[in-house]
Amino acid sequence: MLFFIMFLLFILLLFTLLYRKENKQTSTVEKKTIGGTLQAAEPVRYSEDTANGKANPTTSFNIEDIEKALIKYKGTTNEETVLEVAGEAYLWGKYGAQVNYKKAVECYKRWEEIGNIKGIHFQGVAHQVIGLQTGDFMYYSLGTCELYKAYKGGCELSEGMLRDTFESGFFENVSTFEEGIEFCKRTFDQ
Fold first, then answer.
1. pLDDT tens sequence across 90-144
2. Phi and psi based region of residue 36 (left: phi greater than 0; alpha: psi -120 to 50; beta: remaining)
3. Which of 107, 100, 103, 140 is CA-nearest to residue 124?
4. Coarse DSSP helix, strand, coil percentages of the chain, rounded to the nearest 5 percent
5. pTM
6. From the centroid of its chain, how far is CA 81?
């Protein structure tokens, strides 16, 4: 009888140890997954296909191609597209470009000069980014002013940016989109 009880205790101990080991392995995997420590596959580099908004592995270009296109398409109907892509490349450091805020603003200024309201919108975005990156409140305020100008001109993109700006708490005197628009009207529409 004693032998039988010891046998049962041994089986129970063995079962407990195996169960704990299995749970430890499961929880370790869960922790790694939740913590994001699992190794991902090597990323594949795609360029963006601006025509349909999806990644396209067959199309690739870099900043040198974009700079050549800026010269080639100046004064044509394609200039707006090239200016948008170039501004984005310089603002965010895409397509192999180094971040260059001055060049980004120049692209967006040229886009405005050829008559596209989005040029003013993206100048506003660029100036807000510069303000946030440098801690210069004046650039951020300038960007907000440009976004308001684009919003008044009918640029649908500007409403969302202004809403985020005004509701972010960055400005002490406004906390809602409506308050921000009223403030801009009093300040800029004279």
1. 999 999 899 999 999 999 999 999 999 999 999 999 999 999 999 888 999 999 9
2. left
3. 140
4. 70, 0, 30
5. 0.66
6. 20
